[in-house]
Amino acid sequence: MDRLGVLFCLYRFYGFGGIERVSAILAQILRKNGYCVSICAIQRPPSGFPSELTVDDDVIYAPSSDPLDPVNRGFLPSAISKTGARIVVFHDCYQPMECLLKNIPTSVGLVIVEHNTPTIPVGWPDDTVGTTLSSRLLSFVRAWRAERWTRRRHRLLYDICDRYVLLSDRYFGEFRWVARLRDTRKLRAIPNVNTFVPLPARPPKHKQVLFLGSLLRVKGVDFLLEAWLYVARDFQDWTLEIVGDGPFRGDLERKAKNRTIPRIRFHGPSTDVSSFLTGAPILAAPSRYEGFPMVLGEAMAHGTVPVCFDSYSALRDIVTDGKDGILVPAFDVAAFAAALRRLMSDETLLHEMFENALRSVDRFSAENVIPMWKALFREVMEEKGRAG
């Protein structure tokens, strides 16, 4: 068991999203714990994409970047044979890869990890199609189709796997509703691991509000720009630092320019997130939805206090409102601005929350999370042994 072969399967490696980063970090830690972890993916990373992570082995890529291409049919069996893996861990990112998972030999365990709230994209409103009657009808049809697709896909993945991992047990009820399940014996909850060691003392902080993450619409940076308009005029010596890249970056930069939003800096992607976290006292996390964002634990380990929209269930596993961060009613921009203002104007409160954050973030250390993965792998292998 100490040298158990585990194959991580992703749609893309490496890339903009947190799924790839979480998977790479987990692979590194499992290797240090004696597991033989390999990585396979359908798509290669964008050209020139920076990564602060390295993997010990070459990533195995599919013959085609289209998961539905028939040439990929034997991809996973080939990768399993090449690596000697006895368990495949599929890190789901909502791409049509279930057709490939069906080709995994029955003697090999299959663990599926969902990195988001199970109810997304079920019924999520599409507010990008306009306000006319026809566009509203189109939005409704898209939401209806998304709901049907999500329900069927969740149930299919649950049926073919040996274990289904969610990032919090708070998501169990949501998953049961989405997948229309009665028997949930395969569900397990394992949070993301935090690899940053909490600082022994609070470092010198600059007057900065930091956003750190992919510049995707779901991250809610458009909300953050609106909130910054509320507070920037009263805090002339504070800046908003936006670190990350993604397809929404151009829109955000144009919005900041067109609205003449002051003192915003777009840094692009960084391989040294620790330096930004060390210098910023406040983290802005205005996501429309998430699964279990690593950036919150990483920020708290650096003495950076998070301000978050209360928009997903697992958030309350990480942040205790008013103690080590502030939770704001989802999508209330004025309330988000008020929370920023509260922290920016109260150094004593910031320091108190910093101290609380350092004490709470240890719950997600490798020492506490990796034993959950070890227990999961043992369960799967024991079941495969009985079945054999």
Order of helices and strands: EHEEHEHEHEHEEHEHEHEHEHEHHH
How would you write the strand order of the largest sheet? Answer: 3-2-1-4-5-6-7
Secondary structure: helix percent: 25-40%
- Beta strand count: 13
> Which structural class is indicated by helix and strand composition?
alpha/beta
Give the amount of beta strand, in percent: 15-25%
Low-confidence stretches: 122-129
**Termini gap:** 17 Å
How many individual domains? Answer: 2
Largest sheet: 7 strands, parallel
General form: globular
The CATH top-level class label of the largest domain: Alpha Beta
CATH topology of the largest domain: Rossmann fold
Gyration radius over CA: 21 Å
By CATH, the architecture of the largest domain is named 3-Layer(aba) Sandwich
* CATH homologous superfamily identity of the largest domain: Glycogen Phosphorylase B
Structure characterization notes:
It contains 13 helices and 13 strands. It has 388 residues and is α/β, with parallel strands linked by helices. It folds into two domains: 5-193 and 365-387, Glycogen Phosphorylase B (Rossmann fold), CATH 3.40.50.2000; 208-363, Rossmann fold (3-Layer(aba) Sandwich), CATH 3.40.50. α6 packs across α11 (333-344). The model is unreliable at 122-129 (pLDDT under 50).
What secondary-structure arrangement, pairings included, does this model have?
Layout: E1 5-12, H1 18-32, E2 36-43, E3 60-61, H2 75-83, E4 87-92, H3 98-101, E5 109-114, H4 133-160, E6 163-166, H5 172-179, E7 187-189, E8 208-212, H6 221-232, E9 239-243, H7 249-258, E10 264-268, H8 273-279, E11 282-285, H9 294-301, E12 305-310, H10 315-318, E13 326-329, H11 333-344, H12 347-360, H13 366-387
Parallel strand pairs: 1-2, 1-4, 2-3, 4-5, 5-6, 6-7, 8-9, 8-11, 9-10, 11-12, 12-13
